[in-house]
Structure formats: structure tokens, C-alpha cells
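Predict fold of 3-oxoacyl-[acyl-carrier-protein] synthase, KASIII; 328 aa.
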Amino acid sequence: MGVRLSSIDVCHASKIVSNDVYLEHFKRQGKDIKHLLVDVMGRDKRYMFDDGESSLSLAINASKTALKNVNLEGGEIDVLVYSSILSEYIVPVTSILIHKKLNMGSNVMCIDVNANCAGMAIALENMSNYLMSSKRAKRALIIGCDDDNALVDPNNELCYGNYGHAACAMILEKVNDDCGLIDNEYYVHTSIIDKVMYPSCGFSSFLKSKNVDGLYLKWQPFNSDFFVSNAVEIMIRMLKNNGLTKDDISMFCFSQLALGNIEKIRELMNIDEDKSIYIGNKYGYTGTSSPFIALYESIKKNKVKRGDYIMIWTFAAGSQGIVILYKY
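Predicted 3D structure, encoded as C-alpha cells:
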């Protein structure tokens, strides 16, 4: 028995915004961010919300399409997990609002998770194990959508212009087949715990002082080399422990935060560009959904087929990383 990723779909925002908007924005501040935005982060354009769009509306649309792709109704889902750094609503939890829109049944576990950019990957690992152990639940719907752009300081070139809006929904299903989660490993480093924070002063202080600056995500420069080195170390060890090599992996689906990170991993592991797809130049950085949008694009382009092995790596502020070995 295994847990199959039976459907995956993406819904992105409708407005396309090019780099020119942000290059001009920072030029007026006397800053030249072209090298950072293009060479390091790898941005070209991104999908951004138009009027009437939100992380909730994108999540609902992605979920409906993911269900339709495998001829399922909302009532056939047993678990709904929504991953976001800042949900459209926190009371009630956004997963319950999605539950209503999908006409789901009454005996459904609905939870919102926030592990920042690692949230959707952690949900995949958690729900795979939950379905295997549950006597009742057969299917889980996992949705990820972030609106990081709502948090960022327009004067901070490290993050403003980096993000895009896109939701990803995937359905996990318990099946009598050899597929699903093979292995995973987490790693935590708190040496940069104060570099990316929201609210920057903490909610207890922010709600008392109503400090306008506290509305913005605090993002200070930090060295990401240890993210990459830890990921590479874990991936090499995980492949060896499971009797595989990098050549057995059809696609490496990495965090799309920065093209520079992906290029370092390619070099250290001797991975071809064709097997480590980068989509951050098209979507922008979408946070929790980013490695799964890479997977979605890989499947759509027929680079990943049923029975193929994939590896997923992503990390979150603080920092927490996760590597997953998966049989699609």
C-alpha cells in the first residue's frame, strides 16, 4: 500500500508584472538592483493579484481543478490542509472556508498550517504518514498559497519585487500500489532566527503600539550557503541509504527563492539544468507552493511520469529545511 499524489494543479494570479516596474521603483531611490533581481534571484516576471483576487480565491480555484482532474467531488475528501504564511482569514481557519466552497462532507479534518515556506512540503510528509496510519481517511487535499507581497517593505530591495501569487493544490490518495513518500529528513539552524521576522516587533508589542513599521516583514541580509550545503549532504546520504543515485531521479524540485541556490546545488551534485527545473522567472517566488509548482510544470512538460523518483527540497525563515524522496 502507498499514498499516491493523484492530482496536482496550479492557479496563478492574472496580472503579469515585469522586472521593469521594480527596477524603476528602486532607481528612484538611487538603488541599482538589476544584478540582485536578475542574476541572484533569477526573476523576469511574476503573476500578481488583480482586482478581486486573493490567496483564498486562488486556493479555491486550484482545488476545484485538482478535483476535476481525477473526477472527484469535495465530499470524497477526508482531510483538508491549507498552508500559508498569512491566511486570508485566521478566524475561522481558511481551510474551513475552502471546505464550504468545495461542498465537502461533515466528517473532515480541516487545518491551517504555517511553517512559512516549508509548510506545503511538511504537509505532504505529515499527510502521507497520516493516511497510511488512519483506518478511516483515504484522501487528503493539500493547498498552498502565500501573499508575502502584502508584508514586504517597498523600500527593501531584498524582498520587494521578489514575490508572485500562485496557489498549488494536490490530492493524496491511499492506494494498493508502490508509490509515494520514501524518505524525508528535516534540519533546523537558528543562527539566523532574527533575520526574517513578521511582525518585526512581535504581535504583543505591535498591537499595543500600533507602530506602522511593524506592518512590514523584517528582512535582513543573510548567508544562504549552509542551506545549500545541508540540503546537498542530506540528499546524497538519502539517495545512498535508499539504494539510488542522482541519475535515478527524474526531477529535483527545489525552493524557487533564488536561482543562485539552485545553481550551487547543480554544481555540487552535478545535476543537469533539465533535471532541476527553475520556474521562478515566470511565477516569481510563491513561497510555500514554489517547489510544487516546479513539480506541476515538470509533469505538464512530461519530464516526470508515473513511477518516477523525485526529490523535493525547500526551507523556511528561522531556519527550517526539509528534503523529501518521493515516488510519483
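The chain has two domains: 2-176, 181-327.
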